Amino acid sequence: MNPPPVLPQTDAANGAPAAANPPSDRADLRPESINDAVIRLAGDSQDGIQSAGAFLARLAGRSAQDVMTYMTIPATISGGPSIFQVRMGTGEVLSAGDEADFLVAFYQHSYQDHIGCLKEGGVLLYDSDNVEPDLDDKRFVYVGVPITGLTVEALGGTAKDKGKNIFILGLIAKIFHLDVDKLKALITEKFAGKDESIVNTALMAFQAGYGYPVGNVLTKQYRFEPHVPKEGERAQITMDGNQALAYGLIAAGVRYGAGYPITPWSSVMEILRSELPKYGGLFVQAEDELGAVSLALGFSFSGYLAVTGSAGPGISLKTEAIGWASMSEMPLIIINVQRGGPSTGLPTNVEQSDLFQAIFGGHGDSPRVVLAASTVEDCFYIAIEAARIARKYSTPVFILSDTSLATRIEAFGEPELKDLMIDPTLDLTPRPVGFKPYAVDQITQHVPPGARMLDGKYPLISGLEHDEMGHPTGSPKLHMAMTAKRRNKLRKLAEEIPAPEVYGDQLGDTLLVGWGSTYGPIHDAVKLARENGEKAGALHLRHVHPLPNGLEKVFAKFKRIVVVEMNDQGVYGFGQLATILRARFCEPKIESATKTDGLTFRVKEILERVFEGRSFAARKIPREGIPTVHTDTSPENVKSLKEVVPQGVG
Amino acid sequence: MSTENTPTNGSATATATATPPDATLDFVREKLTKKAITADHPTWCPGCGDFAVLASYYKVIEKRQLEHEKIVTLAGIGCSSRFPYFVNGYGAHFIHGRAVPLASGISLARPDLHVFLFGGDGDGFSIGGNHLNHGARKNINMTYFIMDNFVYGLTKKQTSPTSPIGFKSKTDPTGAIDQPVNPMKQLICAGATFVARTHATQVNHMVQMIERAMDHQGFSVIECLSECVEFFPGAFDSANPRKGGAFALIDEKKWDNTPEDELRHDVTDELAAYKLAQLPFPGVFGVFYESDRPTKNALEKKWIDTTREKLGNPTDLQLLQKTFDRMK
Question: Which sign does the torsion angle of CA A405, A409, A410, A415 carry?
Fold first, then answer.
């Protein structure tokens, strides 16, 4: 074994926090105070840039800064281009940021693919062992560091170039004056439980990056404005959307579930598989999607509200059983972490094209509830809301998430768990004489087996049209009554849910309507539009089906209503939510803004779409000169395949 | 009986009204009679073999005096899968082929319930074939009774996965050409830990098999030749003594150290069971195979118990709070 290399001696090596460094006397070396920065790391998936990005996100969370990340993963099993973008800010961070202030390029292709996303005046930090940038392009600041060579040197060559990610983390920590102690603690935590030498190697790589004399090439350094905590502000926790869904379900008292692996849903089931036993519950990896939904319905039948989930293709397979849940009025939570479709489609990209599937994806009239999570934080709370509705209305409830929520990390205020936790106890109280599981004039409550029926008549849970006791009937009158009963409970729910608040102008020209993960960019777009004199507002729907009552009153206050969503405009020119809203409100002023490039909306794209040919777009779209991602693939707009198809570009 | 804390239909949620489980013990249990467990009159055709299966099921419940509210009768789709409607007890009529995973969920979450599953050959071996294999492999505790009539009856005479070669149906008008499933062979190979075969004309044998299956811990399957008088009459006459056939019973080992015991069948011997399953139709009846491999129910429970013990049996709130503290 090699003797441990001598750590570079820097001030921080002694544990002194970076923030305590005396500011340099030279004005050009004094850190510039910033409140928001977008850092994009671009490399290959095996470089561990996700974990480096995650460290930054966790650090920001710990420093009570707002943080939002954006990640793309290649569909290949190992290798292929990958990015991780972190936006950190002292103020409110809603979207991951259109353009990077700081781009780290590990390879030539990373540089080529992502230089277009770097803001003018932004810093390109590149691995001079692998990248040869066009230094004649004077729009950017170039900082070449032999990342590969230095990492190999620092780690003694045993780990090849593994550890580049941590080296970069050290470098970034230096440039942005990040809290070194906190970062080191995060690294130590991350590798805790493994071989001690792994922790040491990681810390060595970090130190090597941190100790690199970057000041020789980069004259500017930055420091985030300190966060001033508000009164009663809760600590921040940092997690991704799938984690938030899983822990939301646990808080909601969901203790059983079943699933089958599929990207990007899998991590929800992985978390639940290892977490639920701790709570006395169980998550089963089923033999297939049909088995998974059936197992989940078995759990629900036994009295424990259960969860199943998948991405679009798997949901298709579950559809028949979901129809049964609708007919038999069985509570069930179905998570769809949407990806690009149809079929295998774009397995690692984002799309909101399963809304119709969630609402209508069934045979017969099969009412179900559909909710959509808007942020990572909302993933947590929407799971609780889904469980509440499923239990109260004894119905299947869909939660729509998507790739972007599943893979990004956000920091949010820690939930007040003691007020939220629900205890999943079975109600085995004997049911009174005359009890009917499917009383026509009441909302069904599923009774768990084991509860005695005092009149000795036990309920049958049936997929056939049934009478009030669950026994089959072919009576036209009963089918009409039961169909209405199953539909009316959704109307009842619609009465109960409040119309969402409008962000921005309450009365104005343009209302942007969205659902799901577009929350951040839509709100940022409205903010920017208003700063530029537009009278605009944003309405974001969490309850997508049934829609809350009272939306027509909101719509009446705006001249235009533009529904922004990541799906196709369809044969009739409207995206999926836009189609539903037009059908629901017969409102011709509802317009549709869609895209299908498999990438999250940039703020700029939304502004272009909503205000194209109108006042705002004509006046000013920020950060001109950046190549636009082509999103409309109608023939007249297709210039070349390369332009239309994102080549691993985030 | 006080109805004070009894929720009326449509009131509180299942979890909001927590009730101590012993509240249900505060009464005198009456004898469970056939009348109490009888529901709708069966819709089967007169002469259908399934009537006898239902009668045997009633008999077992009555004989064993199971707790009424803990009997769960489940089925998928098919003639035989109408079964739960004829039993007054908790039950579900699920979708085609998926009753095994439905039953698995109930069995895994509620060890206090008796989970019985009824279905046909199409439900079990065709559309639900995958679930049958995996339920058997995972050894999930339940009693699965397959009423095999070698034909699709509910949809009026199409070829089934067990239809013999040459059987003329609406989908094979010149006779079936595909090799049929051998249920015993498939179940043994899939890993079912109790595999038995019976005949719907032999009520006593059926009762015996059901009782042994429900006493077995694990995935217990009984294949019952149950004649479809409408679309495949006489299919099982060769095993019916009243129709000139022979109902050949498996002679199980008695472990009495006698020379004749050497020749008897050892139900724990997988290869011997497989050999019995190879016998030409109508073959033999009784328990082919039985093993005490641990159930998924037991293995999962063990995992849950050791996990919770290691954590010091925390409350749900403590657990989740601790997880969140790590995410700060």
Answer: positive
In whole numbers, what is the pLDDT of chain A averaged over residues?
A: 87
d(CA B55, CA A471): 20
SS3 content of chain A, % helix, strand, coil (to 5): 40, 20, 40
pLDDT of residue A159: 59
Omega within 30 of 0 (cis) for the link into A415 = no
CATH, domain B30-253+263-293, list 3.40.50.970, 3.90.226.10, 3.10.20.30, 3.90.1150.10: 3.40.50.970
Of A181-195, A368-382, A514-528, B247-261, which gets the smallest average pLDDT? A181-195
Q: Where are the domains of chain B?
A: 30-253+263-293
- Beta pairing, strands A396-402 & A31-34: unpaired
pLDDT band for position A554 (cuts 50, 70, 90): very high
Q: Is the ipTM of this complex over 0.90?
A: yes
CB contacts, 8 Å: B88 with chain A: 456-458
Closest-CA residue of B relative to A456 is: B36
Would you state the pLDDT for residue B65? 97
Answer yes or no: is pLDDT of A50 > 90: no
Out of A40-54, A55-69, B4-18, B111-125, least confident range = B4-18
Determine contact, residues B268/B252, Cβ cutoff 8 Å. Answer: no
Distance CA A315, CA A288 (A): 11
Place of tokens 């909306």: A601
> Residue for token digits 């015996």?
B208
Q: Name the residue among B6, B95, B323 with its Cβ closest to that of A431.
A: B6
Give the per-residue pLDDT at A60: 85
Please tell me what DSSP assigns to residue A63: T
Would you call B15 and A256 a contact, using CB atoms and an 8 Å cutoff? no
Does B4 or A325 have the greater pLDDT score? A325
**CB contact B2 to A (< 8 Å):** no
CB within 8 Å: A427 and B7? yes
Side by side, the strands of the sheet bearing A409-413 are A141-145, A118-127, A100-105, A36-44, A81-89, A66-72, A409-413, A236-240
Q: Could you give the CA distance from residue B168 to residue B177 in angstroms, rounded to a whole number? A: 10
CB contact, 8 Å: B310 with chain A?
no
- The rounded distance, in Å, linking the Cα atoms of B91 and B83 is 9
Nearest Cα neighbor of A126 from A176, A164, A72 is A164
The answer to whether residue B50 scores a pLDDT higher than 90 is yes
- At A319-330, the pLDDT tens digits run 999 999 999 999
Rounded to 5°, angle at Cα A386 from A384 and A391: 100
Question: Touching check for B128 and chain A: CB below 8 Å?
Answer: no
Cα separation of A309 and B34, whole Å? 41
- All domains in chain A, ordered by first residue: 11-224 (3.40.920.10), 238-420 (3.40.50.970), 428-496 (no CATH), 503-623 (3.40.50.920)
Share the mean pLDDT of chain B.
93
**Residue B6: its pLDDT value, please?**
38
What does the H/E/C string look like for A494-552?
Answer: HHHCCCCCCEECCCEEEEEEEEHHHHHHHHHHHHHHHHCCCCEEEEEECEEECCCCCHH
A259-304: pLDDT as tens digits: 999 999 999 999 999 999 999 999 999 999 999 999 999 999 999 9
Q: Give the pairing of strands A118-127 and A141-145.
A: parallel
Structure tokens at A126: 């590149």
